[in-house]
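hey can u check if this looks right to u? its 686 residues, i copy pasted from the old doc so theres a chance i mangled smth
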Amino acid sequence: MNLLSPLARIKGVGEKIGAQFTLAGIYTVGDLIDFLPRAYEDFSQVTSIINIHPGKMTIRARCEKISTRPVRRGLRITTATLFDDTGKIQAVWFNQPYRETQLKPARSVEQTGGSGEEFFFSGEFEFSYNRYQLTNPSAELVKDMPVQTDRILPIYRSIKGLKTPIVRKILNELRPLISMLPETLPAKVIKDEGLISRSQAVLTMHFPENIDDIEKARERLAFEELFQLLLASQLNRQENAKLIGWQIPFNKNIVGDFVKKLPFKLTNSQRISAWEIIQDLERKTPMNRLLQGDVGSGKTVVAGLVACQVSHIGLQTAIMAPTEILASQHAETLVKLLQPFGLNVGLLTGSVKGAARKELYNHIQDGTVQVVVGTHALIQEPVKFHKLGFVVIDEQHRFGVNQRQELLKKSQYMPHMLAMTATPIPRSLALTVYGELDISILNELPAGRLPIKTKIWSPNSRAQLYAEIDEQLVIGRQAYIICSLIDDNPENEIKSVKAEHVKLQNSIFKHRKIGLLHGKLKSAEKSEVMQKFAANEFDILVSTTVVEVGVDVPNATVIMIENADRFGLSQLHQLRGRVGRSVHQSYCYLVTSTSAKPTQRLKEIEKSNDGFYLAEVDLKLRGPGEIYGRAQHGALNLQIATLADTKLIRRASMQAKVFVESGSNLLEYTQLADQVQYYQRLTTLN
């Protein structure tokens, strides 16, 4: 048996169990070995019930009685009385009705006095619902416990139909093979970093003997994951340096004239970022830069300045945005910026059809359109550029790698590439996922902008909140009301955008004009709604998160987000950025789903308007998926490492740099090479 052997080769894996593993994406022996525990239960310290005290506790007890009752829609509470030789204790589980079957004594409680099978119960002992109780404890049969006295049990991700004890038992058959796993890191790296071997780390993760050993195993495997990702970035950067692109000399007169004609003064960070980009354009190597700036920080102006510089030697600019609304908005802004210089801006989206589309294709091909703004329509086969020299990918994490590459291929030389994002990138993510990119940061708001005032509201105070919103409408301002669902669902308490639109139109705000926007509308319908809102034809826009990115309505000064506790921190910050886009004071109201204590997420966004600080917090709370993007979500394969661990990232980054600079041959390390090459394909922008 080897790592590529089918699971059926393992003792205890029959057709049924094999099928269940397959549904979880586990096909081979190697897949199962890499299926690492998500947590551990430490049953080594057992407390008798008479000695129990508040905190995380483990007891060895039997179940005397157990029952489940519905409390409200969607919530069931299971309550049990547990006992040992010293006393009794109450245990409570929320939405875990299967505990009744699990803990039911072998014979009826009436016959045995509740002396069924013995379990280890581990959970928080706390004062709740006017009594002390064990809350949501895990339950492990004593007879299933390993023989060793340590009793530290791995907990695996749930696989439907397979209980954790079965997974442990099957993995136990693989112990000899795990102990012979090949090494994946260079020996020098292991020695320099003081790491244990890979086989020892994986063996410890599945069969821990003490908590300290688990931490050593985690460090080794987390380092390996980060080293692979960072090495891929280093190698991509090395490959990018070999490419030949357009050399675009700095034209002081054109750039100076552009800045003078602006109706506002550039912020200092806009000036620095623009200069960094202009310097990149002068090199033979194509630029590969990320411009990250908080909402409203002026990224489009920087892109427009560079497009103006690029056009003076006859090269074209392509700007790709994720939605028609955002593409249209960019085009409108760029027309105002670039028309005074005689530059033509074209807009290519799904709404441009027939003769108009064909005419635009011709103008792009003959070069009479110098700047083309569009959606993914830009990467379609009929689009042929005259001389494409500069590519801007806005909200680049919303596009897949292949989509970005298709646009870059439409140039005879590799064009300069600028990725832009309004989602601030945490430092640790910038070092890993975006390690091959140079990064420019816009961290200032344009002059005259006031910080948005953010406040958490209980749903019980809705009437007062509506009154505050109406005060803004009275003085001529506009408001967004954001809901997370489109259609009303009687089984779900989350407010739907359609139901909210009807309710507000027929009651609280019946004296106001209210628009409705959601993702199921056709593109032309969405554009029409947004244009009417921008033209002040609606006082209120009830919408889903389709307004999240890039929509600019300076007169809108209020955004109310329903069920705000159901949104991620970065998304809340993005939504908040729909207001605060003028000199008027703006407000963001976060309405919670219940009157319970607000979440840490909401407290953080209430106290801070700093998107970079919030991005760091969001990374710690939720991981990299939201920031890294839809196409790559879940593809990082990080089971152990966290991108919030800046110290380990720094160590792995240094080792990756040393590996590349020393000229080491990656292909000498077969397994390492496979994963690094996978990450190279995944993260590269060229």
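The two ends are 40 Å apart (CA to CA).
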